[in-house]
Amino acid sequence: MIKLIREIVGGLYSLLVGMRITIGQFFKPTVTVHYPHEALKMPPRFRGHIELVLDPETGKPRCYACKVCEKSCPSDCITVDGVKFEGAKRKSVTIYKLDFTRCSLCGSCVEACRDGAIRFSHDYNMAGLSKEEFVIDLFKKLEDETRAAGGMPFLPPVAAGPAEPAGGGALPGAGGAAQRSRAEGAAVEPNQTEVK
Question: What is the total count of domains within the chain?
Answer without folding.
Answer: 1
